[in-house]
Design goal:
This protein has 382 residues and is mostly beta strands. The chain contains six helices and 22 strands.
């Protein structure tokens, strides 16, 4: 048994004395601080590669298109080619309702390459046109393209993929790069009290039409019903605690999708979960790390280390197996997503023990089981 378990790594400022969870709080506990501070997965997919994405003009005085970009459409689904597309004349007058779309050469039921054409004419008879390529692939291949970062939802519109928001994983094993590329899926949870604050980390597990689901540790989430959720660019949105699990230390906070600014929403992503890859890990000494974002859109700190054991005996928490690593944990690291050098989610920062000093994470399978228990939803995994 590990001696001197320090426990949960929340940056909560406690109004009470330094004791609490499981009788294991100590004055050196990191939570104690003196200061104030969708688709169609079985089918195929259609790829529309817009030849001109942002603004398309024939001449400086003619009409211009806005929002024409690549669209990836699963077989059997139907695309609204005008969704998000607008047009205006040289003086800025709206011509969106005049846009004509020719998709007669597109057959979304058969693999192949096609074209869709956009046309618009202003009051002076000046016409502007542009086209997009349409390529049909299987839905499985479409999701694989998202997973290996050939395409991403912040650059293109994807319809019919199981998870179009997946940040994907790289073929390059470089932990610092992987952490930077994971930032669109990382958040800070913050609650300001009258004389103290609580803060912890979190990460986006799932994005739906109605809500964004954020995972963190239970000992973070259970403190309050309401949270300020700071996304990676510093944007803050109100969130609500959805629930917590009594198995592993896992909690979920939700944000209403409608409350997220459209520009930011297009750049958000979910963590990449490859359960098959994770299940094959055991004593593999791979690079791992975490990154915490601050409330101004910057990086608070990173911590790098080595994976020691993907499932290891843990003397607390009902003796459930946890992931052990060498990446050091600091105040407020609770709930941080721990990634490998390619960007795969490995676990969630949880606690450390002393004598000897050891650093622990909730394992990936525990995260997934608890997420389903709390939300009633099954997140997409590779």
């Amino acid at each position: 048994m590990q001696k001197g378990f320090v426990g949960i790594l929340t940056a909560a400022l406690l109004a009470a004395a330094p004791w609490g969870w499981g009788g294991l709080w100590a004055e050196g506990h990191p939570s104690f601080n003196q200061g104030y501070e969708q688709g169609n997965p079985g089918g195929a997919a259609v790829l529309l590669s817009a030849r001109k994405e942002e603004t398309v003009e024939q001449d400086k005085d003619g009409p211009a298109f806005f929002g024409v970009r690549d669209i990836y459409l699963a077989l059997g689904c139907r695309a609204d080619y005008l969704d998000g597309v607008a047009a205006a004349d040289g003086s800025g007058a709206d011509l969106t309702e005049r846009i004509m779309v020719d998709d007669s050469r597109v057959n979304p039921e058969q693999e192949g390459t096609y074209q869709v054409t956009y046309r618009v004419e202003d009051d002076f008879g000046t016409e502007t046109s542009c086209f997009a390529e349409v390529t049909v692939v299987s839905a499985q291949e479409l999701q694989e393209m998202i997973g290996n970062r050939s395409i991403s939802a912040d650059e293109v519109k994807i319809i019919g993929a199981a998870n179009p928001y997946d940040i994907g994983a790289s073929g390059q094993d470089e932990i610092e790069t992987a952490l930077e590329e994971a930032r669109p899926a990382i958040v800070q949870l913050y609650h300001q009290g009258e004389s103290s604050y609580s803060a912890g980390s979190g990460y986006v597990m799932e994005i739906t039409e109605d809500a964004i689901y954020i995972c963190s540790d239970r000992h973070v989430v259970e403190q309050y019903d309401d949270w300020e959720v700071y996304f990676y660019d510093g944007t803050v949105v109100s969130g609500r605690a959805l629930g917590c699990s009594d198995s592993y230390d896992v909690g979920v906070v939700t944000v209403e999708t409608a409350d997220v600014p459209e520009e930011l929403f297009g750049r958000l992503g979910t963590v990449h979960i490859d359960r098959e890859y994770w299940s094959g890990l055991n004593d593999d000494r791979i690079d791992v790390g975490l990154l915490r974002v601050d409330r101004q859109g910057g990086v608070m700190h990173t911590s790098l280390g080595i994976l020691l054991k993907v499932k290891q005996y843990f003397a607390w928490g009902d003796n459930r197996d946890h992931t052990e690593m060498t990446a050091k944990l600091e105040h407020g690291d609770s709930g941080s997503a721990v990634f490998d050098g390619c960007g795969n989610l490995i676990g969630m920062a949880y606690a450390y023990s002393t004598s000897p000093r050891r650093y622990w994470c909730v394992p990936l399978d525990g995260i997934l089981d608890c997420y389903e228990e709390i939300t009633g939803r099954t997140v997409f995994v590779y």
